Amino acid sequence: MDNLQKTLLISLVSVSLSSWIIARTYQVDMMSAMMTPTNPLSVSLFVAVWTAGMAAMMFPAISPVVLLYNRLIKTKANVSGSVIEESDAGPYPLKMILFIGSYLAVWSVTGLALLLLWTLPINAVLAPLNSASLSAIFGAILILAGVYQFSLLKSKCLGYCESPMSLFMRRWKKGTFGAVSMGTYHGLYCLGCCWPYFLIMVALGWMNILWMALFAGIIFGEKMWAKGIWVARAAGVGLAVVGILSVAGIVTVVPTHDAMSMTNDESMSGMVNDESPEASKDMSPADTSTETEQGDDKMDGDPPGMKM
Questions:
Q1: CB 190 within 8 A of CB 66
Q2: Gap between the Cα atoms of 31 and 46, Å rounded
Q3: Domain locations along the chain
Q4: Nearest-CA neighbor of 160 among 170, 173, 146?
Q5: What pLDDT, on the 0 to 100 scale, is given for residue 213?
Q6: pLDDT band, residue 150 (cuts 50/70/90)
Q7: Contacts of residue 196, Cβ cutoff 8 Å, sequence gap at least 6
Q8: Does the predicted model carry a pTM greater than 0.85?
Q9: Can you spell out the DSSP letters for 222-235?
Q10: Comparing 268 with 183, which gets the higher pLDDT?
Q11: Please, what is the end-to-end C-alpha distance for the chain in angstroms?
């Protein structure tokens, strides 16, 4: 690995780490945007943090593809038939920026589509339903995501992600336009591999760092291991099992953004009560003890997103 490749790899890792920090810092704002998808400012914030989250989750897994593309355009490999032909059109740094930028653009559009085409109508449709019905619906989503892990489309898309050379052999284009085209195609293949994870993150509100790290680990295993399809299928079995338990009513799947919304409402109510002198005077030691016990119960509860 030459100095340029090392610099590129360090840059990818640095951007990924910075993106984790951004996603963690603005996580609550992002969840709020999911509750108000008609606000342009909220939508813009969601897309920005979503894109940062995608960089955090995906850059470690796509680093072999980026490094291979770097090597190909640097050496301007010329092969015919099974050949990759590169022209001198377009400066090298610009091609790398366009390739990575086009890849991220696919995920930005995906996040916007999920927010507007899923969150907006689904919030209105699901709002009147009780918790049992909601758990069954979200369980069905988990089952769908698990079944997709065994599909031919998943295998085909994952094949291109596991073998970057086959991607470039099939989709190679010259110049700066080629960088945009191939970055977009790579983004679409990654989308074909990973869309169930991100649908779950939006539909169930599992955009917290714990779930993002878990899915990032699964994606990394899928793309970096030669037999990553088995990682995908193991994840599929896990998602399907949780979905079946949720539909059966054994496990209750609760959207995290709903829980956060309730928590925020309770916090606001608490702030109002705290500002009222009469309320403070009326609070007895017994009431304080009860609240303390309730707080302890919350600490001992199930992790966000699921209840047994």
A1: no
A2: 8
A3: 3-253
A4: 170
A5: 85
A6: very high
A7: 144, 145, 146, 148, 149, 239
A8: no
A9: HHHSTTHHHHHHHH
A10: 183
A11: 49
